[in-house]
Design brief:
Strand content: 5-15%
Largest sheet: 5 strands, parallel
Distance between the termini: 51 Å
Order of helices and strands: HHHHHHHHHEHEEHEEHH
Shape: elongated
Oligomer: single chain
């Protein structure tokens, strides 16, 4: 991570920790202001102090006093810490990030935006390959190989990931089960999960409630949970036996899913390596069936 980004993140985390430390001894009005700052970081970054004070329900000077208590000369200096976090996609309110993207994007060239996007994407990929031990990755794949069944979970924005994982892994093995939760039904697809099974849960912050609850249930029944997520502090990380981290920073208003896609592809690749020689026959049979059922486009004019 570039030093400037690391410094900005440390400043933001430092403010949050300091607010928590000061909180017990603050006057009532400052406690209200501190609570608002902790719960609405996006507002601090994008709204005026007057708007923030109105939203918190306290008078304007309270935020200036709180800024000084945190070691800043002015509220503007404190607000700058939050503003940089929004630019780095560390605050999750999509509409605020979209607003920030429009405001800042109009002031810089298309080439600069493209370069920033390229840089963040490469940083995400570099972080994956520098932080994950290949032996650990292989051990996770081995857990999948030795399992009885593999249940794949991914809700909300991660639903496409779970479908992709199921599509790839399903070619290599017949023990893959996709948990969709269609119609709000989650219990039926995991009715048989238990000892010897594995659940792959793909969940990024803010984590879908169903993904966390399914992981808890899986572990209660003796199954192992492999989490693919964006942070060691993500809720799913605390409910998993194995965690694969894919940073997702982006200058755009939505997270980058490039890193997660790489992790999925690598995991299924390692999983396939560990399968028996029959995996080739299975894939060959699937391909033949697809051709027979005319699933692929053919240029009939050729």
């Amino acid at each position: 991570m570039p030093k400037e980004k690391s410094s900005d993140m440390n400043a933001y985390l430092g403010v949050s920790e300091r607010l928590k430390e000061l909180f017990p001894g603050l006057p009532r009005a400052l406690k209200v202001a501190a609570t608002y700052m902790l719960e609405h970081p996006g507002d601090i970054a994008t709204l005026s102090m007057r708007q923030v004070a109105s939203g918190a329900g306290v008078s304007l000077p309270n935020f200036s006093r709180l800024a000084k208590a945190l070691g800043y000369e002015t509220y503007g200096e404190l607000r700058e810490v939050y503003r940089k976090q929004v630019q780095q996609s560390d605050i999750k309110e999509y509409h605020l990030r979209a607003e920030n993207l429009q405001k800042t994007g109009s002031d810089i060239s298309t080439r600069e935006i493209w370069e920033e996007f390229r840089s963040s994407t490469l940083d995400n990929l570099t972080a994956i390959f520098e932080s994950i031990d290949p032996d650990y990755f292989a051990s996770v794949a081995n857990v999948l190989n030795e399992s009885r069944q593999i249940f794949v979970v991914g809700m909300q924005a991660s639903a496409s990931f779970s479908a992709y994982t199921h599509y790839l892994a399903g070619m290599a093995s017949g023990k893959i089960r996709l948990v969709r939760g269609e119609g709000g039904v989650f219990a039926d697809p995991i009715a048989d999960i238990g000892v010897g099974d594995v659940m792959i849960s793909i969940s990024q912050q803010p984590c879908a409630r169903a993904s966390i609850e399914l992981a808890i249930l899986a572990r209660e029944r003796g199954a192992k949970v492999v989490a693919i997520t964006d942070s060691p502090a993500a809720p799913i990380s605390f409910e998993a036996d194995y965690v694969l981290l894919g940073p997702n920073r982006s200058p755009l208003f939505f997270e980058s899913y490039v890193g997660t896609t790489v992790l999925i592809e690598a995991l299924i690749g390692f999983f396939t390596i560990g399968q028996s020689s029959h995996v080739v026959e299975r894939i060959e049979r699937i391909e033949a069936d697809r051709m027979r059922l005319n699933e692929y486009w053919k240029n009939k004019k050729a």
